[in-house]
Design goal:
With 395 residues, the protein is an alpha+beta fold. Strands 4-1-6-5 form a four-stranded mixed sheet, sandwiched between helices. A three-stranded antiparallel sheet has the order 3-2-7, with no helix packed on it. It folds into two domains: 231 residues, Endonuclease III, domain 1 (Orthogonal Bundle), CATH 1.10.340.30; 147 residues, Nucleoside Triphosphate Pyrophosphohydrolase, CATH 3.90.79. The protein is built from 14 helices and seven strands. The site of iron/sulfur cluster has 14 residues, from α9 and α12. Iron/sulfur cluster binds next to α9 and α12.
């Protein structure tokens, strides 16, 4: 019992210290945490959940400063869930371009359709029913919008709590304990302010490298600080090497100077985005053979694989890829979307109108530079012009 009372006293002191620090040093100007008139809400005063929800989904994989301009453009384009529900998926993906993890954009639109005509959820279950919303995002939306006492446990909070307690195991291995701690610390009278303060502390003071312990309101309670090496926390498991794959990519041009692109299936990584066709190199296969094979298997076309345009590497959280991109000349066959939603021939200057994954932006830049260098001259496998009848195949 004495230990419980002591723990509660420590929690009360930690809350008070954190909120006092936040009043002065917190990130008070975050637009979705303010009323429409720009003033901070009173305790318990509800805010519009829509802009908060959009921001929370953007912030799942992106830092605040990066997400802010995207959020502003998004809210200007679709200021309400009704507007988002009616939006074209193509436009939604295009606006998201550059934020990565595109399934988040499609899920926001899907969620807007799901919630249409209903009151905004005020419990965890209501938010968890939306695809891609986890407990921490749901807790953050509920506390931010309605000032309800739901705890959060995002990456910043895990790091702060791991250091506060000098936890000997990685947070992912003791999530239940971390959730309990976050709930115990949460200020039931000011949950909105407390959660924001905790996130702000992690983002601005208790940073991943070189935490500024001299400016920290929790220094006196922090076990990692007392141990002398706060940056050693959170303890991490040894990293596993990422699998590596080489991807052959064909930038296929026809005689009219159009380039062939295809739209990925909606399911899976980068679903719904556009890309240049290609695929994995098989063991012992020359990259030009990979590209010719992929074009045949996935688009039913024959193409002559020409010079290399660019080679680049891109790391995802679960794998590393090297894209080896070659210019190709279309020879025969009407392109068919055998492994994609649709295929299209487009003018190179139209490529900006399509949402592409980040790695493709460099391919597009290299193509445009190559075309600019070549002027009106044909690029690709050679100077031979295509037969006029082959110059504009149907998409
Ligand atoms: S004292 Fe240092 S390590 Fe501990 S919570 Fe504060 S900033 Fe983080």
């Amino acid at each position: 019992m004495a230990a419980l009372v002591q723990a509660e006293m420590a929690a009360a002191e930690l809350r008070q210290q954190l909120l006092a620090w936040w009043e002065v040093h917190g990130r008070q100007a975050i637009p979705w945490k303010r009323r429409p008139d720009g003033h901070p809400p009173q305790p318990g005063e509800p805010l519009d959940p829509y802009p908060i929800w959009v921001a929370e989904v953007m912030l799942q994989q992106t830092q605040l400063q990066v997400a802010l301009p995207f959020w502003r453009r998004w809210i200007a384009a679709w200021p309400t869930r009704e507007a988002l529900a009616a939006a074209d998926e193509h436009d939604v993906l295009l606006l998201w371009q550059g934020l990565g993890y595109y399934s988040r954009a499609r899920r926001l639109r899907q969620g807007a359709r799901q919630l249409l005509g209903q009151p905004w959820p005020r419990d965890l279950e209501g938010w968890l029913a939306l695809t891609g919303i986890g407990r921490s995002t749901a807790g953050s939306i509920l506390s931010s919008a309605f000032d309800l006492p739901f705890a959060i446990l995002d990456g910043n909070v895990k790091r702060v709590l791991a250091r506060l307690t000098a936890s000997p195991r990685p947070p992912a291995r003791q999530l239940a304990g971390f959730w309990q701690l976050s709930e115990r610390l949460l200020d039931p009278r000011r949950p909105r302010a407390f959660n924001q303060a905790l996130m702000d502390l992690g983002a601005t003071v208790c940073t991943p490298r070189n935490p500024s312990c001299g400016r920290c309101p929790w220094q006196g309670h922090c076990a990692a600080y007392a141990a002398g090496d706060p940056a050693a926390y959170p303890v991490k498991d040894a990293p596993r090497p990422l699998p590596f794959q080489v991807i052959g990519v064909g930038v296929v041009l026809n005689g009219a100077g159009e380039v062939l692109i295809d739209q990925r299936l909606n399911e899976g990584l980068l679903g719904g985005l556009w890309e240049f066709p290609g695929g994995k190199q098989e063991p012992g296969e020359a990259i030009t053979a990979t590209i010719a094979r992929e074009l045949r298997e996935e688009l039913a076309i024959e193409a002559e694989v020409g010079e290399e345009l660019i080679s680049l590497e891109h790391a995802y959280s679960h794998k590393r890829l090297r894209f080896v991109v070659h210019l190709c000349r279309w020879r025969s066959g009407e392109p068919l979307p055998l492994a994609s939603q649709q295929v299209r021939w487009v003018r190179p200057e139209q490529l900006a109108e399509f949402p592409f994954p980040a790695a493709n932006a460099r391919i597009i830049a290299a193509l445009q530079e190559r075309l600019a260098r070549a002027g009106a001259a044909p690029v690709g496998a050679g100077p031979e012009p295509l037969h006029p009848e082959q110059s504009r195949p149907a998409a």
